[in-house]
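DM from R.C. (forwarded with permission)

"hey, sorry to bug you on a friday — could you get me a structure for this? deadline for the figure draft is monday and I only need the backbone to look sensible"
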Amino acid sequence: MAVAAGEYEIGSRHAGRLLLRTFRQGVAAKAGHDLVIEATEWDGHVHVPADPAQQPSVSVRVDLGLLKVLEGTGGVKPLSEGDKQQIQQTMRKVLQVDRDPHVLFTSTGVDVQDGAAVVAGELTLAGQTHPLSLDVRQRNDNTIAGTATVVQSQWGIRPYTGFFGALKLRDAVDIEFTAWLQSG
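My reply, with the result:
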């Protein structure tokens, strides 16, 4: 992975995408949907030092109040626009958006090997901060993509349940992102 030294802005304003993927489980899983949710408002900063002895750094802020359900797969019936709105309201409650409206990620170290990097850092979500690692690959000179998994209960978030506990959201939420590095 060889990103040129410099300061870069990333985020939704720079054509970046940040997707969350949730999965259902439980005896009533067939009634629910696996969801693709987009963070429509997020921004960040990437610093790549000219001195290879120095560590690159990454910081990202995501507005939880602007999460949008893009699609739901599975389920007994397709998701309607009303269903998507209801899910978004439920997400706001589960994620405690009124109390902590943003997710923050700040890197603590970057390990680059064979065209990829593991970015270790601290994720602040729902008022709690815990370690999180991002797996990152460079797609071309100015595009990076990556993944991570957030286990909600590690941040004190109780995954959604419905139908008296028969339908459950898997505790682990998969994160996917693509960022275009815009010189800052």
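R.C.: lifesaver. The chain has one domain: 6-183.
me: no worries. The CA atoms of residues 83 and 91 lie 12 Å apart.
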